């Protein structure tokens, strides 16, 4: 459970909320992977792919600003996510535990 900050009265409350957030991040990454896989199946126009990449990059900057995070930090996170999902998992040292 993510407890609103105003109701966090000790570090146990904060740690439990952070654990929930971390679990949701991983859950959403797995869901993102399933959507990317579906997109690959449906993809039929490489010119559209180039446009999509430009739009995603622009969207990352917008999201970073909306949530008051550094644009380069958000772009770096998404670049790492994309690198992971677009390569052989073992070629860069990523192995499932």
UniProtKB/TrEMBL annotation:
The keyword Lyase applies. GO terms for biological process: chorismate metabolic process. It is an enzyme of class 5 (isomerase). GO terms for molecular function: chorismate mutase activity; lyase activity. Its EC number is 5.4.99.5. Keywords: Lyase, Pyruvate. InterPro entries: Chorismate_II_sf, CM_dom_sf, CM_II_prokaryot. The keyword Ribonucleoprotein does not apply. SUPFAM superfamilies: Chorismate mutase II. It comes from the Bacteria. Residues 16-81 form the Chorismate mutase domain. This is chorismate mutase. It comes from Sphingobacterium puteale.
């Amino acid at each position: 459970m993510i407890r609103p900050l105003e109701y966090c009265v000790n570090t146990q409350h904060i740690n439990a909320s952070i654990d929930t957030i971390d679990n949701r991040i991983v859950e959403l990454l797995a869901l993102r992977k399933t959507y990317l896989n579906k997109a690959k199946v449906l993809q039929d126009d490489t010119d559209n792919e180039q446009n999509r990449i430009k739009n995603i990059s622009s969207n990352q900057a917008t999201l970073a600003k909306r949530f008051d995070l550094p644009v380069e930090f958000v772009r770096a996170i998404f670049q790492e996510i994309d690198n992971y999902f677009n390569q052989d998992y073992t070629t860069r040292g990523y192995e499932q535990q």
